[in-house]
Each structure stands twice: as C-alpha cells, then as structure tokens.
C-alpha cells in the first residue's frame, strides 16, 4: 500500500511542478510585457529583468494553492484516464486513502511556501522595490507615489524607499505651524545614528516667510524623530512584501498608535491560511476527479481547474477587501471562501465514497 501511496504522491507532485513552472513562466512574460514601457536610461532592461526575477519567489508562494488544485486534477486525472484509479478502487483502496496520498506532497510544498513567504520572498521583494525606487533617485526627483506618508512629532514625513539595514531614501519632511507650511526638507537619504537621532544626507531646506522663500543646501543634517527605525522601514514597504513576523510586528505598533492596521492584518491572514487553502482546493479537486470530471479529457480538467482557481481567488479577494471596508475581522473574511471549499470538498468526497 505504501508503494501505491508513493506512486499517487509522485504523480500529483510532478503535475504540480509542471503547473507551477507554466504559471511562473506566464507571469514572468506578462509582467515583462507590461513593464517594458518603464525602461529608460536609468531603468535598464537588466534592471527590469532583475526586478521581475526577485519577485518570482513571492509569486511562487501565491500560486501554490491554484497550482495544487490544477496539479491534483492533472495528476489524478492521468491515473483515472489509464484506469489505474479504477484498479485501485477495485482492489479495495478507499477514496480517503487516495486523497491522503495526494495531499502529502501538497502539505510539503505548502510548508515550503510558508518558508519562502517568511524568509525568501520578503527580502527579494524589498530589494526589487528598492531597485525601482532608485530610478527616481538617479533623476533627483521624488515620485510622491508608491512610498509612505507618516505623521511624526507634528511633522508630515514622506519616505520613498528603505532598505533592510535601516537606510531611508527620498525623504521629505513638511513642518507646519498654525496650519501653515513653514519648512520643507528634502533629503536624498537618511541613516540611523542612535535612539531617535538620524542623519540626513544631501539636504535641501526650504523656508516659507510671509514675503519671500529661502532655500539652502547642505551635505548633512541631524533629524530627531520618535518613531523606531524598524517601524520606519516596515512603513515604507507594501503589505504584500512583508513576512508574517514583520506583519505581526507592524500590526502591534499601529494598534499601539491607535492607527488602522486592517490592511496588514488582511495580508497576514491571506499568507497564514495559504496552506489550508491549498488543502481545501485539493479536496475540491479530488471530489471532481471521482465525480463530474471522471471521464473528462486533460484539457477539460485543466480548464475546470483554472475556472475553480479563479473563482476561489476572486472570492478570497472579495471577502478579504469587504471585511476591511466594513470594519469586519479580516481573519473571518479570508476564512469564508476557504471554509466553503473545505466543506464542499468533504461533503462531495463523502458522497463519492
């Protein structure tokens, strides 16, 4: 029986790998076509390829649930087409045992995906974001989009990008008094010295007087801000480029400051529940292979898997975003489509076997 389990698991695993390579290849090609218009003297074709490649680990982790679904449909569908599943069932092998064997490689790749999401994808994605931001720095411009705005010590601060060593890039500090803007500081970069002390580099300071404006430029300037360096780094990143531990850390900080943490909480639960989502979709695939897709062609199974995967992903996005919009716990919003797939898969599996 163990040999049969290994045979089923290897069939599902190889199909999963094929689907994953195809999905990543399509993602790479489509992203390249979409982003090629950004190429210029500062943002070269090599930089674009590097950015896309650095984001592939994150895309791999995101594709694991859908690849698990289609891979299971393909792997077990191949066995069904050659009547091997029929022989297994005739020999007394229950459906739950076939399902258990099919789930084993999916559990392993899901755990691998969690490791990638925690240790590999965030580092790579944050480096990719930094490369994109540097094209604006080379032009000595501030994009004022894609970065982060913060309120710190009665000042409004814009940070264009940050790296994992705590260095900030493209900083603008707006200092108002009595609801009137009095000072603006532009700095190419900033690095943490100690405590609340930072050093601003390549600084341009503009002061607004009632009758005139003065602008001065200096190489270095001190900047004291009460926000911790790690929080400045996390604030400058998109939620989907953070690891689970970083998302948890920044959520706690935002709650302490009585700020909205729903976007980070939503991304946390989408990532944390991804292995359960993979297993839920595998159950749906199993019930389909032993049910309506038993005699379907390979193309039909792949098409059905794509439709189910798209429906699941759209439902996940819909319920997740709706939970944020209506101030509902994101954990419940993300869990709803996963729970529906689990229940549907279990009920259909029970009917089949």
UniProtKB/TrEMBL annotation:
One of its GO terms (biological process) is lipopolysaccharide transport. It is a multi-pass membrane protein. The keyword Membrane applies. Keywords: Cell membrane, Membrane, Transmembrane, Transmembrane helix. The chain crosses the membrane at residues 12-33, 63-83, 95-116, 268-290, 302-319, 331-349. The keyword Transmembrane helix applies. GO terms for cellular component: ATP-binding cassette (ABC) transporter complex. It is found in: Cell membrane. InterPro entries: LptG, LptG/LptF_permease. Its main location: membrane. Part of the ABC transporter complex LptBFG involved in the translocation of lipopolysaccharide (LPS) from the inner membrane to the outer membrane. NCBIfam families: LptG_lptG (TIGR04408). Belongs to the LptF/LptG family. Component of the lipopolysaccharide transport and assembly complex. The LptBFG transporter is composed of two ATP-binding proteins (LptB) and two transmembrane proteins (LptF and LptG). This is Permease.
